[in-house]
Amino acid sequence: MIYLDNAATTKTAPEVIEAMLPYFGEQYGNPSAIYSLGSAAKKAVNQAKRAIAAAIGAKQEEIYFTSGGTEADNWALKCAAEAYQEKGKHLITTRIEHHAVLHTCAWLEKKGFEVTYLPVNEEGLVDLEELKAAIRPDTILISVMFANNEIGTIEPVAEIGAVAREHGILFHTDAVQAFGQLPLDVEELRIDLLSASGHKVNGPKGIGFLYVRSGLKLGSFFHGGAQERNRRAGTENVPGIVGLEAAAERAMRLMEEKTKKVSGLRDYLIRKIEAEIPYCRLNGHRTKRLPGNVNFSFSFVEGESVLIMLDMKGICASSGSACTSGALDPSHVLLALGRSHEEAHGSLRMTLSEENTREELDYVVESLVEILRKLREMSPLYEDFLKRGGAYVQ
User: Fold this and answer.
1) pTM for this predicted structure
2) CA separation, residue 132 to residues 124, 160, 190 (Å)
3) Could you confirm whether 316 is annotated as catalytic?
4) Catalytic residue among 79, 105, 280, 323
5) What is the model's pLDDT at position 328?
6) Buried b / exposed e along 14-26 (16+ C-beta atoms within 10 A)
7) Looking at the predicted structure, is the pLDDT value of residue 348 above 90?
8) Which stretches of the chain are DSSP H helices?
9) Residues 352-374: what's their mean pLDDT?
10) Cα-based distances in Å from 38 to 31, 32, 115, 248, 378
């Protein structure tokens, strides 16, 4: 199997599994208990907070564990909107956010909040002047993702943070795809709220965190017990938290080396596809993109058909976000870039890891050449293109 869907999830690293195992067995205590077995679990949770805080330039008390990025996004937006609604009820986000943000914004609109959805350019970048123009006296929150999960484009987060801070507006960023892959300092970037997830960085599924800058009056999202300093009820997922710590430390340690290797593989794959496959278009910014992200639109074909045929050849990829897998609608991200419905339906996302090789990528491109030739020969869109004078390519 050749796995090229690391934006959807990553393989849990062996050292992460090893770190978690004791907390399923001999160290199974509840962190809220006052006896020694519980105290050992509590110590592990606090140690994980220190490690994760250090990874993003934060303080230990600013880290709150969640079930993943989706919960962290929901918590940040819903509770910030509720806490600051006396100042205003206007939020700003973008048209290319993950659905965890977009659907939360839609829910807030039903509750009487107003949301401005900023457009992006054809490479997926937010225009800072358009952001500034969207700010109103009643704007209380700006939410812009650090890097897009589909096209890999990295947003100008530092500049957005500066604009938000200058206007006294909270800034939230969904950093699920960026955490562990890109250098990240919440103080330097002027981030007030940040969401991240463990399973994107070779950690376990079902664990993530929300960074909340000290002094913010963010309320509880879950109600019940007094865990997480009365802000997030529920018994802590100690094995997951320990796994997230191990994954974060691993990601920080390997970041420079991994980025160099994976971005090299990414650029190799992009060049090879553009050289060997006609009628294709790279989606996202060519250089301001995540190290392992490769997203193309292939004309005259359906992305789902390409995926099925790749799977038959032992290749795992996706046509967009894993959270919308199986959806018939075209990618909202690609439509926001100005792509046509046909281009959006013909998209393929391949996200690489340090375990991939050039030999694997050679096989992937060889397979794509064969698959696309077969699909285009059956495509009425391609037939119509040829009738209108287009060039047939074998």
Assistant:
1) 0.95
2) 18, 9, 16
3) no
4) 323
5) 66
6) eebeebbeebeee
7) yes
8) 14-20, 36-56, 69-83, 99-110, 128-134, 157-166, 227-230, 238-276, 303-312, 332-336, 341-345, 358-377, 380-387
9) 98
10) 5, 6, 44, 24, 63
